[in-house]
TrEMBL record:
<feature type="domain" description="DUF7702">
    <location>
        <begin position="4"/>
        <end position="257"/>
    </location>
</feature>
<dbReference type="InterPro" id="IPR056119">
    <property type="entry name" value="DUF7702"/>
</dbReference>
<feature type="transmembrane region" description="Helical">
    <location>
        <begin position="37"/>
        <end position="59"/>
    </location>
</feature>
<feature type="transmembrane region" description="Helical">
    <location>
        <begin position="112"/>
        <end position="132"/>
    </location>
</feature>
<keyword id="KW-0472">Membrane</keyword>
<feature type="transmembrane region" description="Helical">
    <location>
        <begin position="6"/>
        <end position="25"/>
    </location>
</feature>
<dbReference type="Pfam" id="PF24800">
    <property type="entry name" value="DUF7702"/>
</dbReference>
<feature type="transmembrane region" description="Helical">
    <location>
        <begin position="177"/>
        <end position="197"/>
    </location>
</feature>
<keyword id="KW-0812">Transmembrane</keyword>
<keyword id="KW-1133">Transmembrane helix</keyword>
<feature type="transmembrane region" description="Helical">
    <location>
        <begin position="71"/>
        <end position="92"/>
    </location>
</feature>
<protein>
    <recommendedName>
        <fullName>DUF7702 domain-containing protein</fullName>
    </recommendedName>
</protein>
<feature type="transmembrane region" description="Helical">
    <location>
        <begin position="232"/>
        <end position="257"/>
    </location>
</feature>
<feature type="transmembrane region" description="Helical">
    <location>
        <begin position="144"/>
        <end position="165"/>
    </location>
</feature>
Length: 278
């Protein structure tokens, strides 16, 4: 059986992310794996995109249709924004680190991580609910989840602005990392907007037994933005390309920026940052 447009795009996603995964793992290992959650979440996002794409491709090729493959693929597809936003949050937290390696405003970052996790849980629950009697509640959960994603994005913008106002206090290469995050924000904005438009494009999210998700009560003005039944060109540009641009920016930054050199510069500098001057 041949793939439809959604299946072809899923296959393309697998193809473009598999090579990047290698570099993402190298970056995460370079910076201590679990010690720097930003890079670890970048790896997680790429894995989600690869696995989600594989599930959707398999769902179209396997007959008779397996509903669980569609549900799993769509859940990963729709919730992938969460680890990308949380990855950005983790990288922003790195820019607050001083020579002691400790980040500033730890409580605020932890609260935002909880916000992103809560949005992810609501989104997955809303998508995974297939009972028609629970569709109204599921739709509400999905919409609350995506609005929380939007709120998290706005919080990221606010943190970036704050960090630029105190750029004189940032270590050299963390300032360059902040520049990379700032460059990624416009792409993240388009991606977050697409999630909102897609989620509000229909009042139900029902997995069909055929080749795609069927929706009902679609808003005619927003139907073209639906992630699964809308125009594939919009989906390609506003989701796939925007996400890939962010991932490439972070991967290049992680590969090229010698962030660990910040500590060596501080040790060798006669007047390092954060040390009392007399």
């Amino acid at each position: 059986m041949s793939l439809d447009t959604q299946g072809i795009l899923s296959a393309v996603v697998i193809a473009i992310y598999v090579p990047v995964l290698f570099f993402a793992f190298r970056i995460s290992y370079k910076y201590g794996g679990l010690r720097e959650m930003g890079w670890l979440l970048l790896c997680l996002f790429i894995l989600i995109r690869i696995v989600g794409g594989a599930l959707l491709v398999a769902a179209e090729l396997i007959r008779p249709a397996v509903t669980g493959l569609y549900i799993g693929g769509y859940a990963l597809e729709a919730s992938g924004l969460s680890p990308l936003l949380l990855c950005t949050l983790g990288l922003l937290e790195m820019t607050t680190q001083g020579p002691d390696g400790e980040g500033k405003r730890g409580l605020a970052f932890r609260m935002l991580h909880l916000l992103g996790t809560g949005a992810l849980v609501l989104t997955i629950i809303g998508i995974s609910t297939t009972s028609s009697s629970s569709q109204s509640t599921a739709n509400t959960e999905r919409r609350i989840g995506v609005l929380l994603f939007a709120a998290l994005y706005l919080a990221l913008v606010a943190i970036v602005v704050v960090q630029w106002t105190r750029r004189g206090q940032l270590m050299k290469y963390r300032k360059q990392l902040l520049l990379a995050i700032s460059a990624a924000l416009p792409f993240l904005a388009v991606r977050a907007l697409y999630s909102v438009l897609s989620t509000f494009s229909s009042s139900t999210f029902i997995t069909s037994s055929t080749s795609s998700t069927s929706t009902s009560n679609s808003d005619n003005d927003l139907a073209k933005f639906n992630m699964f039944t809308g125009e594939w060109q919009i989906y390609l540009v506003m989701e796939i390309l925007m996400e890939y641009a962010v991932v490439i920016i972070y991967t290049v930054a992680g590969t090229l920026l010698p962030l660990n050199q910040d500590y060596k510069l501080q040790e060798s500098d006669e007047y390092p940052l954060y040390r009392p001057q007399y």
